[in-house]
Write a structure and sequence with these properties.
The protein is α/β, with parallel strands linked by helices. Helix content is 47%, strand content 10%. A five-stranded parallel beta sheet has the order 2-3-1-4-5, with helices on both faces. The longest helix is centred in the C-terminal third of the chain and has 21 residues. The C terminus is likely disordered.
């Protein structure tokens, strides 16, 4: 199963990504965009072609510039002429990124976190009818303040009215999506996730049909382990996006 975390930036998408990434049955990816990037050209593929391998190599070279989004240490497992369909190809890219997972046999749920996909939710529902959407929303005051205090120049330099327009735009899309397909959409208020994390996470696990594992909430230890492995110091990595 492939499901999605959507919502505006700084609404809790990255927090939810980290929690689910720490679940033994999940792989969560952060904004790698391959699912739709290759879709128009390869959606009806029946085997791995030389053109696909060339496109993937170029894509991987671009993604390697962002350490959070690279394939990591696990090699992408595709071979020329192999008989696979498009979604099996996509699944292998998700797995290639998940070099932090020691036992892939336990994984039965893929979570693609991407705020941009908020704009593409209707298309994603058509190509993946079983997909579910975790939609994060945040109180507008917290959203604006978080952007103003951001390390990202493009966010902190925008005016309050500009941030307000972005907040309204994304939340209108989410409300419309919830109205269209209530059974496959769960709206999560960022403030509730931080205040009542155990109860909200239990609801999320039921929604995704995965085991309720409280250990997933200890995601910060995994980040520390990754920092130690990569020899990174300081708190630069403690996520800048949300």
């Amino acid at each position: 199963k492939i499901h999605f975390i959507i919502g505006s930036t700084r609404s809790g998408t990255t927090l939810l990504y980290h929690i689910l990434n720490n679940h033994k049955n999940c792989i969560a990816s952060a904004e790698i965009k391959h699912l739709l990037l290759f879709y128009s050209k390869y959606h009806d593929m029946k085997e791995v072609t030389a053109g696909l391998i060339k496109d993937v190599d170029y894509y991987a070279s671009i993604m390697s510039l962002a350490s959070d989004h690279s394939f990591g240490d696990r090699k992408l497992d595709i071979t020329l002429g192999e008989k696979i369909n498009y979604f099996e190809f996509c699944r292998r890219i998700y797995f290639a990124q998940a070099d932090y997972k020691t036992d892939l046999n336990q994984v039965n749920c893929i979570i693609d976190k991407n705020p941009f996909y908020t704009l593409k939710a209707e298309m994603l529902s058509k190509i993946l009818p079983d997909a579910k959407f975790l939609c994060t929303v945040r109180d507008y005051r917290g959203f604006v303040l978080s952007n103003i205090q951001s390390f990202e120049p493009f966010a902190k330099n925008l005016s309050v009215p500009n941030h307000s327009i972005v907040w309204m735009f994304y939340n209108k899309l989410i409300l419309a999506l919830e109205e269209r397909q209530r059974q496959s959409v769960k709206v999560i208020l960022y403030e509730n996730l931080t205040l009542y994390k155990e109860e909200i996470f239990e609801e999320i696990c039921k929604f995704l049909n995965i085991e309720y594992d409280l250990n997933s909430l200890n995601y910060q230890q995994n980040i520390r382990n990754k920092l130690e492995k990569e020899n990174v110091t300081g708190d630069r990595y403690i996520y800048k996006r949300d």
